[in-house]
UniProtKB/TrEMBL annotation, chain A:
Organism of derivation: Halomonas cupida
Ranges where the DUF112 domain occurs: 17-437
InterPro entries named in the record: DUF112_TM (IPR002823)
UniProtKB keywords: Membrane, Transmembrane, Transmembrane helix
The protein's name in its UniProt record: C4-dicarboxylate ABC transporter permease
Pfam family, one: TctA
TM regions (residue ranges): 20-46, 106-132, 144-161, 168-187, 199-221, 313-337, 352-376, 388-406, 412-442, 463-489
UniProtKB/TrEMBL annotation, chain B:
Protein's name in the database: Tripartite-type tricarboxylate transporter, receptor component TctC
Native source species: Halomonas cupida
Gene3D superfamilies named in the record: Bordetella uptake gene, domain 1 (3.40.190.150), Periplasmic binding protein-like II (3.40.190.10)
Position of the signal peptide: 1-31
Family (UniProt): Belongs to the UPF0065 (bug) family.
Top-level taxonomy: Bacteria, Pseudomonadati, Pseudomonadota, Gammaproteobacteria, Oceanospirillales
Automatic annotation (TrEMBL), chain C:
UniProt KW NAD keyword: no
Pfam family of the protein (one): TctB
Highest taxon in the source lineage: Bacteria
Domain DUF1468: 5-148
Name under which the protein is recorded: Tripartite tricarboxylate transporter TctB family protein
Protein keywords: Membrane, Transmembrane, Transmembrane helix
Membrane found in the keyword field: yes
Transmembrane segments: 37-55, 76-93, 99-116, 123-145
Length: 498, 330, 157
């Protein structure tokens, strides 16, 4: 109890609270600007945290990342340009709602789910962190391989429209992920002698190119100044929330649970969590046909999942010093720099730092409600600004955002080339979201597969030799065979009815 | 804040004043160095050990030079990207970098044409040595038992991980095996993205050995999941007093590790190098840097520009030999 | 018709990928190596592209009737040209920012794009001037991104 009070004292200082506020505003800004993402926001914070005490430093990172993940949905909803790969799963859905004049309603429920997911993940972190981390350590290359395949399968499964086109888009993303130095052999692949490509293709310029640039090209290709998204007087941020929560609270719980679990795995993050929970949501829903046409249900699952995934990623980071995602990879460095060595001792020392951390998590997530509300209200600026003024500004942010990833012009080139290709694909009804997931998960699939094969000398049956691995493998096979099984089942019932 | 700036300015004026008298003949423009912020390129990601080292030395350098030092991460490609970026900058002293041991490996592996000869050495600031970590439930109780088992069991029985193929811990461990009279590739190397993912594989039973530096295994050691048999350094690491050195364990003097130092592109003016070298030595000795490195358990080792250059040349041969023995030479 | 072409494009890309991948080195301990995944992806491109093309061939009659409607889309080339405008301006940024600096280049990009869409001169000029300055200082001074300053003004910003 004493340590808890110590922790409370650490948090409840004017400094820390101000830092949380400032970091939240920074997170909102970075998340809401097309072209800037949560991971980048945290990386940009590192030099600043250098000059802070441990508690405000961690507070700044927690507040920024949680806020940026939510705010990524704002341009996603209004402009069809998602802010993070985690929101790419349902950007189509929320943009459809915006076109029906329900942008605020969609963002309102999204905000509530994000806060719920974040707090759910934190509670899990507080209560069962050590147990969950033990489970996560059971995962080896075999399990990560299947999990990544599961994520990829989901992106095909949830796509509406031609499955062939979705698969081709996914393969395009996977091909991009093979660019660069192959970790297994150390051999460069598809680098064409450009040293910068040795590092591979970063997903951020690709995402900017796929969504933002292609959207810009669509605008300059048409000659209409009419907005696709309009304000309607009935659209309100929170008025529909109680209705949706009442109807979809099991989805919130389910999304948050999936998110926390997947987030806690060191090799999988919020992005896989969002895709899998969206797919689960669609698979279990009674209104499957409504998905992709502007349906709230999938957004509830996926937006709960990505924020709880962010919290879940802290589980292995704090217990074993193993990063759960790209954000906690940076966090661990900051923790070490502050003399807080992650590991079991962090839970035992009497200084209350760990409690301070938990309180910061809850506070930062709660802070999302008012600041997120403000941001949603302010985001009508996307509608009020005429497109002819807004679009050039977005273009400039895209260029600077792509450059800022590595301070390299190569990323601007990548954004441009990917933008041109995806413009061609999008105007022919290809979904591009699967490509993003392919790029993010491609290396996970390949490296874990190769690593497993190197250990077992090329024995493919080893993927079914471990219990968790076998379970995941059977799930994947089931997903791929389920259309077939369904068809047989339908045929059988029809025949028996006759 | 203001007072520190003015005191920095005074120091800055003093340093540049001294330097100016020495290099008067070489032109007025150089005498003012540094007159604008300096960029410090780091070839590894934000938040990692190298990044933290760079930011700390950068801050200490700021105090010495009276100019902002901006740390810029250029990651990927096993260090190729960042080191190439350092060399592509103008050799005016306004872009320098934290070069790492990969300089001695990349060109042997055929990843790039750049070698240590393309750099202007300024000073070495750190030297980290590999350890030998196994899972806590490993049947081996000491390094001697483990080495004996590697010697007698068939080739490929043991797997190790901690870096990519041809990464520093891979080569250092292969060199250790060679030192023990064992073939360099008797233990299969499973490439990984770094020490952290290798640690999870070690604990989940996927691999047998992680020869990373001991501080990289800290949290797992504290959690009782991993034990460290030895550290291949001349002396025990102060923050891990229970981990014996290689000499204490099996009487070997083998020492190959990861060095880090400040360097710039080839052709930097000697006056600028002298200014930087002097400032860097002071920064190295500063409490800011020393306290940080001690707390992290990172090794500190100072070599001035000339010695650092010689050291790089020496290590280049050592790594060239190991790379060839492992069969990765290109 | 376009799906047929894109399908063929994917098949071509698949073949190129497979051929390039054959040049990658193999791993010492396994029969397959870094070429495995690119080859599989290339194979996937071929199969998917073929499926896409074939599904179009089935609808060939539909296509012929649609081709007759093509007359409506006569202004398509001009649209294509204007849709390439953002891409062209990105190339302009890449080529000229080292000389002109990010600040000026961004201003030119914003201003010209706004004028093309017939924004009032005063609004276009002032908003692009203010916004390019805001973006530039935000990134270079607060987020410490080393944006090109441009050799034209040599470090004066």
């Amino acid at each position: 109890m004493d340590t808890f009070i110590n922790g409370l004292n650490l948090v409840l200082t004017v400094d820390t609270l101000l830092v949380i506020l400032a970091a939240s505003l920074f997170g909102i800004f970075v998340g809401a600007v097309p072209g800037l993402t949560a991971t980048m926001a945290v990386a940009l914070l590192v030099p600043v945290t250098f000059y802070m005490d441990p508690t405000p430093a961690i507070a700044a990172i927690v507040a920024t990342s949680a806020m940026a993940i939510f705010a990524g949905d704002i341009p996603g909803t209004y402009l069809n340009i998602p802010g993070t790969p985690a929101s790419a799963a349902y950007v189509g859905e929320s943009h459809m709602l915006a076109r029906q004049g329900r942008a605020r309603e969609a963002l309102g429920i999204n905000l509530v789910c994000s806060v719920f997911g974040g707090i759910f993940g934190t509670v899990v972190l507080i209560v069962v962190a050590q147990f969950l981390a033990e489970v996560a350590l059971k995962f080896s290359a075999f399990e990560y391989f299947w999990l990544a395949i599961l994520g990829l399968s989901c992106s095909i499964f949830i796509s509406s429209g031609s499955k062939i086109k979705a698969s081709l888009s996914l393969l395009f993303g996977l091909l991009l992920s093979t660019v660069g130095l192959d970790m297994m052999s150390g051999a460069p692949r598809f680098t064409f002698g450009v040293p910068d490509l040795m590092a591979g293709v970063n997903f951020i310029p690709v995402m900017i190119g796929m969504f933002a640039l292609s959207e810009l090209m669509k605008y300059y290709g048409s000659h209409s100044e009419n907005k696709k998204v309009n304000m309607t007087s009935s659209d309100n941020v929170f008025s529909q929330v109680p209705v949706h929560v009442k109807k979809y609270w099991p989805n919130m719980l389910r999304g948050s649970s999936i998110g926390t679990l997947i987030g806690a795995l060191p090799g999988a993050g919020a992005d896989i969590a969002a895709w899998i929970s969206y797919a689960v949501s669609k698979g279990k829903s009674k209104d499957k046909s409504q998905y992709g046409k502007g349906h709230i249900e999938g957004i509830v699952d996926a937006s709960s999942a990505n924020n709880s995934g962010i919290s879940g990623a802290w589980v292995p980071a704090l217990v074993f010093g193993i990063p759960g995602d790209s954000i906690t990879a940076i966090v661990i460095g900051v923790l070490y720099m502050k003399g807080m060595n992650p590991g079991p001792t962090i839970f035992m020392d009497g200084s209350g730092l760990i409690y301070a951390l938990f309180i910061v998590f809850i506070l930062a997530n709660l802070m999302m409600l008012p600041i997120g509300y403000m941001a949603i209200r302010l985001s009508k600026i996307f509608i009020l600004t005429p497109s002819r003024v807004l679009m050039p500004i977005i273009l400039c942010f895209c260029i600077v955002g792509a450059f800022a990833i590595n301070n390299s012009m190569t990323d601007v080139w990548i954004m441009l080339i990917i933008g041109l290709i995806s413009h061609l694909l999008i105007s022919n009804d290809f979904p591009v979201a699967p490509a993003i997931l392919g790029l993010v998960l491609g290396t996970t699939v390949e490296n874990n597969f190769m690593s497993a094969m190197m250990r077992t000398g090329g024995d493919l049956t080893s993927f079914f030799a471990r219990p968790i691995s076998a379970t995941l493998g059977i799930m994947v096979i089931f997903i791929w065979c389920s259309p077939l099984i369904m068809a047989i089942y339908k045929g059988y019932t029809q025949r028996s009815n006759v | 804040m203001k007072t520190t700036i003015t005191s920095n300015m005074c120091k800055h004026l003093m340093v540049t004043g001294i330097v100016a008298t020495f290099v008067f003949a070489s032109g007025a423009a150089l005498a003012d160095y540094p007159e604008r912020p300096i960029t410090l390129v780091v070839p590894w990601a934000a938040g990692g050990g190298t990044d933290a080292t760079a930011r700390t030395i950068g801050r200490a350098l700021e105090e010495q030079l009276g100019q902002t030092v901006n740390v810029v991460n250029r990651t990927g490609g096993s260090g190729v990207v960042g080191h190439t970026a350092m060399l592509n900058a103008a050799p005016d002293g306004y872009t320098i970098g934290l070069a790492t041991g990969e300089v001695n490996m990349m060109h042997w592996l055929g990843l790039t044409d750049l070698t240590y000869e393309d750099f202007t050495p300024i000073g070495q600031i750190n030297y980290d040595f590999p350890g030998v970590q196994v899972a806590a439930d490993s049947p081996y109780e000491s390094l001697e038992e483990l080495v004996e088992a590697i010697r007698t069991e068939p080739k490929g029985t043991f797997t190790a991980s901690g870096t990519g193929l041809g990464g520093v811990w891979h080569l250092a461990f292969a060199g250790f095996l060679m030192d023990q009279g064992i073939e360099a590739d008797r233990v299969s190397w499973i490439p990984s993205e770094g020490a952290a993912p290798a640690m999870t594989e070690l604990v989940s039973g996927g691999i047998d050995i992680v020869p990373s530096s001991v501080p990289e295994a800290r949290s797992m050691i504290e959690a009782g999941k991993v034990k460290s048999f030895t550290v291949m350094s001349p002396e025990r690491i102060p923050s891990f007093p229970n981990v014996p050195t290689l000499r204490e364990e099996i009487g070997s003097d083998y020492q190959v590790g990861e060095w880090r130092g400040i360097a710039g592109p080839k052709g930097m003016p000697p006056e600028v190098v002298a200014t930087l070298e002097e400032a860097l030595e002071e920064a190295y000795k500063s409490d800011t840097y020393q306290d940080f490195m001690k707390q992290q358990g990172f090794g500190t080792e100072w070599r001035n520009a000339e010695e650092f250059g010689k050291f790089m040349a020496e290590m280049d041969q050592v790594f060239g030999n190991i790379v060839e023995q492992v069969g990765l030479a290109n | 018709m376009r799906d047929l072409l894109i399908g063929l494009g994917f098949i071509l890309a698949g073949i190129v990928t497979i051929v390039t991948a054959q040049k990658f080195p193999t791993l010492p301990s396994l029969q397959f190596g870094p070429s495995l995944f690119p080859s599989l992806i290339g194979g996937g491109f071929c199969i998917g592209g073929l499926a896409l093309s074939l599904s179009q061939l089935n609808n060939i009659r539909l296509l012929i009737s649609r081709c007759q409607d093509m007359g409506i889309k006569i202004n398509a080339p001009r649209k294509l040209l204007t849709s390439l405008l953002p891409a062209a301006l990105i190339v302009f940024y890449i080529l000229s920012s080292d000389f002109l600096g990010t600040l000026l280049t961004m201003f030119i990009i914003m201003f010209s794009l706004m004028m093309i869409r017939k924004t009032r001169f005063l609004i276009a000029f002032s908003s692009s001037a203010i916004l390019s300055a805001v973006i530039y200082f935000l990134f270079s001074h607060y987020l410490l991104i080393p944006l090109p300053q441009g050799t034209l003004f040599e470090g004066s910003l």
